[in-house]
Design a protein that fits this description.
A two-stranded antiparallel ribbon has the order 1-2. Helix 4 runs antiparallel to helix 5. It is mainly alpha-helical. The longest helix is centred in the first third of the chain and has 48 residues. It has a domain of about 240 residues. It contains 9 helices and 2 strands; from the N terminus they run αααββαααααα. Its main location: membrane. It is found in: Membrane. One of its GO terms (molecular function) is chloride channel activity. Keywords: Ion transport, Membrane, Transmembrane, Transmembrane helix, Transport.
Length: about 375
């Protein structure tokens, strides 16, 4: 009896796989595989082995080396690959845990804010207080998107330095448009950007533009990341909530702790993003791999002859494949198939917070859905 295919449902609908694998992993050579990274070195070492076998067979008497040299080199190669892959996966796992910490902080801050946003003595909230609460819930979700885009080296919103500049009078006018001081920032996902002709730059991502407060300008061109800028708004809301009597001292302090944990986790993710593996290790690893796979044909040519070619190709495929996995896991915040599913994880958190907010707004004081916030 065939089991029905489970359709993705909330919660965690976006961060789970949406469809079963059509092919066994052993037969996959495209999505998620690292073959495109290693095909060139495997091909070059195979061709080099062809040359060695040809010279050994038709030109010189013997090019063979003692086979005892291989175990000595293989120990070094194994140790270096274990270190590289272990370090890379640790960066991947740490980045995933940091993203969980950030999502948990957003959940806690949203929950506490909505549960305690109540008027004094049973009075209803004013429209200003409702707007303030709703704004800060949207800012909490926007922080997730801002962190994602900053880790991917993408712009977020227009810099404040452009706010005072008038728009071009004509697309054919002589006035030059301002140029960002961070031209290396580019959007790798064109569908997520909107081109703002007023300022002539790529601005906020369409996926979370509506979450940002009206008129908010950024300071990324001056070195201030949008995530930290948004946390200042959250800190201000905590202070206002304390003054309104929504949060008592210990609760406000705990909310600040949650906000600090969010900033700390983001800082650790920035450390992973901005601290690559030391170049000395990368150089030596590449050289050791090349040396081993270049010496290997000489050590086996006398025993295997033309069979040395597929043997070397398999060894090169294995070793360079392990090294290629480390390369992909080194920076886990991008768009690769093997990177952290930041898009799906953030969308799931957005869905959770959005549902909480909509239920809170249903009656203005969160008494919908069986008194969720009572």
């Amino acid at each position: 009896m065939a089991h029905p295919t489970r359709r993705p449902t909330y919660p965690l609908a976006h961060s789970f796989r949406h469809k079963p694998r059509r092919l066994p992993l052993v037969l996959r050579f495209a999505k998620g595989a690292i073959h495109s990274i290693i095909v060139l070195p495997v091909l070059l070492h195979s061709l080099f082995t062809v040359l060695v076998v040809y010279l050994d067979t038709y030109v010189v008497t013997s090019l063979g080396l003692p086979a005892t040299i291989i175990p000595s080199l293989s120990i070094v190669v194994g140790l270096m690959l274990v270190f590289r892959n272990g370090t890379s996966y640790d960066r991947f796992w740490t980045g995933r845990n940091c993203l969980t910490t950030i999502g948990t902080s957003v959940r806690n801050l949203a929950r506490i804010s909505l549960s305690n946003a109540r008027g004094k003595d049973g009075e209803k909230l004013t429209e200003e207080e409702k707007r303030d609460t709703e704004k800060i819930l949207r800012v909490l979700v926007a922080i997730l998107y801002a962190i994602k885009h900053n880790l991917r080296a993408e712009f977020n919103i227009p810099p404040a330095s452009l706010a005072s500049l008038p728009p071009p009078t004509s697309p054919f006018g002589s006035r030059s448009r301002p140029i960002s001081r961070r031209p290396s920032y580019s959007d790798h996902s064109p569908t997520d950007t909107i081109d703002t002709e007023q300022h002539g730059i790529n601005t906020a991502k369409a996926e979370y533009t509506s979450l940002l407060p009206d008129g908010l300008m950024g300071y990324e061109d001056q070195g201030l990341g949008l995530p930290l800028q948004l946390t200042v708004l959250v800190e201000g809301f905590i202070r206002r909530g304390y003054e309104r009597g929504w949060f008592h001292g210990p609760m406000a302090s705990q909310m600040t702790v949650q906000l600090n944990a969010l900033v700390d986790a983001y800082g650790r993710m920035e450390t992973i993003r901005s601290t690559p593996i030391p170049v000395a290790h990368l150089i030596h690893q590449k050289q050791v791999l090349a040396l081993f796979t270049c010496v290997l044909p000489f050590a086996i040519v006398d025993d295997y002859g033309w069979w040395s070619i597929p043997i070397v190709a398999i060894v090169a495929f294995t070793l360079y494949g392990i090294e290629g996995i480390g390369v992909q896991l080194e920076d886990p915040f991008g768009y690769d198939k093997n990177d952290i599913k930041m898009d799906g994880i953030i969308e799931d958190t957005r869905q959770e917070v959005t549902v909480l907010l909509e239920e809170w707004k249903a009656t203005g004081e969160g008494r919908a859905l069986g008194g969720m916030f009572d």
